[in-house]
């Protein structure tokens, strides 16, 4: 805990005072101060902990480009960055959400959240945009330490980091980053970093690698650079920020964007940032260790760095930038290291608890104390309330902090009771008697009236007014003595004649000004400049000094004339001046900057003069047209040889003169830039100033423009605020404006739009070039664009706004759009161009937009037929889009009806009108092998998902599928979705293409049969599915392993024998497995295949086939042998049965029937049934006999045919024999050819065959690729075909309509061409009948020519189109001239408006000057009243003192009666007349204000509605000025009264400062209100901004009114309070001393009544101001109503826009 010191009053100090008393010892302990509370920053500077400045400030973070903010935006990635998927979609219209909106990439995604899967969220810019800024706007000042950015894509090829410390008004660059610094930022140094604040360009963070998660790191304070003073202002300012901005200026690409400009290329390049960290803390200047949330900021965000410092070290403010109340003993400074620089408590000795810091006091005390106590109590005064007020006396027995330390009259009496008496002064200024306690105390102010000699005891001289020091060589604080060039009169403030003009000049930073004031006056030959001199301080001779700046090498001849108001009295010190002395001539040498006239001029105090400077001639070597010179100022320098102190003749005056001349004191003061004044000159100049001004002059520093009320004692220069100049700091620096408590602000005039860099001192309005507009002339006026070459917006009367850069019209009305509002919006047609007079009408397709039955994207009107042609939306057709297009269905003819796509799963031809039902939407003609009401199923014989168009043919195996499902190989049925075929028994697979396990022989077509492998002799039950062969164990074989093994035969369960076959004659080694018979090869026979077979000859095994004829004959012989054997068998059968043997059966049946018939015939008793049976048998016998007869006949025919066939066979055999011989020959020939081929190049043939095979395979591959691959030529062709069909379908109706329209147009044209008559055309164009010959036609015609060979058409008295056009051209030219004259008139009117504004500004300046004079007068009056009361009180106290001798009383009374008080009736009457004159001057002020208001109303009429608002604001300003003028007159009346008691007054500096400060605040408020009025004039076209500005202006006007009321109240208090007291006091004194001044009292009463009348007038002005305020509030309410209407319209437009967007989404989703 730091040690707390008790600051007690030392007892020894009391012993050293001039008043010695015994003080009780307990006094010291009672006066100790309480110890200060400890805090965490007591050991030195302290700083809050750092954190991420982005946390909790997502709403303050912004980016100029973000993907997907307006609509979904596709983007792609470079292939090697991520997964196989290459393209994605960015949709940032809603904030990021990991589940519902993961594709949002807003800027707030870069803030660190420590959420899982952090890399799923990032910020991303728009594709291909290079100039992108990321900006953080902080709510207060912060310390910024470093930046870390992690990029998702390539890091930028160029970027920079910059900051602002004034909330975005100005920016400074921290660091440049670039891959190629020389190309990107050639003006920046490439390092290395030498100073911590160097701005360099570095490349280490701009390489293209890594392609993702690359970082950019920037530290404000580089750790490699040693910082000597980390707490110095340079480092602190470097860390201090209010705004941070990262500008990404160039993308890294792979170069393909330079060769290919397709959109797909740009979609790969953009900025994307995973995370951004801005480390810093709140900026507290080392006076706080923690920060708290600001009002309106979130307080519960974890990790947020707050912006309001919790101040320590007795400081306060948002950033601890001020000292706390009553802690102004030292200037506020930032804490530095171990130095807290804490604000120190003021020492007011417990007599005040308010103080302020004064820099002048601080400097005067040697930088130890600058606190000045305010409102001292207990009758104390002084900087520390350490002195007693006049006529109050310090009790030496009490401590200075005792509330009763100062006593008045009663205190003096109390002292006398204790043996203590105050001093007594003799009339001659000597002290008669000093008692204890009186030494060094100046008791009475009456010493001021004693003769000029020093005190015999102390040596103190009697000083002039406000001169202090023992020798009166110093000026009192708040006063100064002048320099010799103090009375400087600026040329730019003088009266200019004959074309002289003011030239303002800007001061260059770091270079001293070589001129005074705001600039110069440029004068030409013959020009005259008149200076008004009305402040001559002393009657004496003055040297005239002219300061100038030459422009040419020659001399100028100048004539200077002094114009006096009248003749000079002979009794005057200037009585010897003759008229010739007032006219002087001189020359201005080009090598000098000033000249002093050869002889002085004598001027009198209180007299006004005019010094006329005429530039008669330029004296160059050659006459020069337009020669000019710059005149700076005229200076009146008091001539030292006119002062008694230099010319008295005594040794002291002679010595002073010698010193003054030796040190060239006069020459030191002539140039603008002066050398340091020698000390002897300084002393003499102080004395000169005191003699000339009867003392020191008050500083009168402007409370608004100065830092302190005290000024430099030498010259009186006040300490000015930023951009404030003037000795009193009373005006703005050239190029600045807005004089007020904060100083002045820079004009910032646009160099392109302003005529100069200077602006109006009050409003800040820059002088704009023609066409430029705005306070800084930095944009075009409303309804114009293209700054600085402003041009009117061309919007065809459909809009008053356009883009200020491009001129594109904004907010087009009347359903128009386009850069010039030249076209109709979608859904409307017409020609809205202003020249055409047309409008946009709703498209009747079939009804207007918004009716619910509008189905066209746009429409247009046919120029010939006048009919409206609709461009239907997708899904609609017909002349009025009232029918559904092919592929769509619905009821568009009904209200709210719509056409919808047929729900056919994309399986129909949308160009086919019969593809679906247009009413119900039922699908009628399904494509792609689909079927169903919605084409949702695959057709029979196909399977798959029809909704995805994947129906494929069933690929069932014909051999394995049931015949009911697969009647042929090309007509198989399968399951509709899976494609499963219905298989035969023991067949498996989706396509039924293989057998079940342990089955084989799918080729049977009946299903698969079992393998039947032997259970003991086979290895498994499975077999080959094609051959059925089982896997046998050793020793066994056969298909089922139930036989002997290979090359064996027999029964496996009994005995197996080896096949005994001759290997030379067998075909295969395996013999028959049961019989053992060998399988012989052709030409071999025998049991063992060991002999040649029939038809072969030779020795086995060389069996050769017999000749081919053997084969033929052998077959014939074998055939004959076979037939012979058949004949033999037949013969043997005939031999056994006979010839009839073949008919034995039929004959036997006949015999039996005949026998039965014979029996019936022979029977005697035959019955009817027997007879019937007999008849039936007879019929059967007849039938059978007929059949046999027929058979015999047929056999006979067959025999005949057989004989014929035998003959034909014999013939065929002969033919066959001949053919066989031919074949033998051919065979022999082929054998020879084969042998030749075998002996030829077999490899070549093989290569040829193999190449052909490869070509065949390649052709097969291409064929498969062209049909199966995606994409493929076939698929592309199909897509092209579909697009073509779609285009044909969608444009068929339009083409048909256009074709029909064209045909109609051609028909109409042919009709019109047929009906054309050249005669009528000649008459209409040229004005004469067309059938008149050219020679007889005065107006000519088609094909007519005049004498010169020129075409002749029209003329005088001709009424044709040519004559009409000529007349129109003449009228147009005449109108053009009129327009030019009108433009000139408009320019003249604008100049008049500008002059009116200038006059208004001048009136306002004069009013403000008058207000300042009134305030000064008021302050002097108050000081005079107070001093008078003090004087009277002192006199009363003196007269009531015990022991006052009669001589002293008589002396005081005589001196009081000698005071020049206007007590006579004549004097008071004169004062009353002066007051009336001042009151009558109010009429002139009102006239000026009325003229100004009239000028403003003229300007308002020109600017219509926009300027009417300005006129109302000007009315408020005029009313305020009227009130101010009334107060000015009241103050002038008080000034007249003040003159009556001026000789007895003394200034009270503290009261003057307070009044000036209040007045300055009121003026500042009025100036601010005027600035807001100017803002209203410039921004009236923006209604919402105007509303806000009007509210602010109303608030300021109300504050101004309040200030005016306060001033009026103060005036009333002054009149009713101090003035009444003064009146009563003077009345008592006069009645006591003399009764003859009764009339004077009555005059004073009338004077008070008149002052009260003035006060009543002021109250009337206030009431008028209140009425104006009510009017202003009513206008404000009207503006609010208009704003509400605009808000409603805006909401309605948003609703309409939402509906449009919804429709767009609906149409976008239609396929």
Automatic annotation (TrEMBL):
One of its GO terms (cellular component) is basement membrane. InterPro entries: EGF, LAMB1-4_helical, Laminin/Netrin_ECM, Laminin_IV_B, Laminin_N, LE_dom, LMN_ATRN_NET-like_EGF. Disulfide bonds join 311-320, 699-711, 701-718, 720-729, 747-759, 749-766, 768-777, 812-821, 872-881, 926-935, 983-992, 1011-1023, 1013-1030, 1032-1041, 1059-1071, 1061-1078, 1080-1089. Gene3D superfamilies: Galactose-binding domain-like, Laminin, Tie2 ligand-binding domain superfamily. Residues 282-345, 699-746, 747-792, 793-842, 843-901, 902-953, 954-1010, 1011-1058, 1059-1105 form the Laminin EGF-like domain. Residues 481-693 form the Laminin IV type B domain. Residues 1264-1279 have a biased composition (Polar residues). PROSITE patterns: EGF_1 (PS00022), EGF_LAM_1 (PS01248), EGF_LAM_2 (PS50027), LAMININ_IVB (PS51116), LAMININ_NTER (PS51117). Pfam families: EGF_laminin, EGF_LMN_ATRN, LAMB1, LAMININ_IV_B, Laminin_N. It is found in: Secreted, Extracellular space, Extracellular matrix, Basement membrane. Transmembrane segments: none annotated. SUPFAM superfamilies: EGF/Laminin (SSF57196). Residues 1171-1240, 1379-1434, 1513-1692 form a coiled coil. Residues 1-32 form the signal peptide. CDD domains: cc_LAMB2_C (cd22299), EGF_Lam (cd00055). Residues 1256-1285 are annotated as: Disordered. Residues 42-281 form the Laminin N-terminal domain. GO terms for biological process: cell adhesion. Keywords: Basement membrane, Cell adhesion, Coiled coil, Disulfide bond, Extracellular matrix, Glycoprotein, Laminin EGF-like domain, Repeat, Secreted, Signal. This is Laminin subunit beta 2. The lineage of its organism: Eukaryota, Metazoa, Chordata, Craniata, Vertebrata.
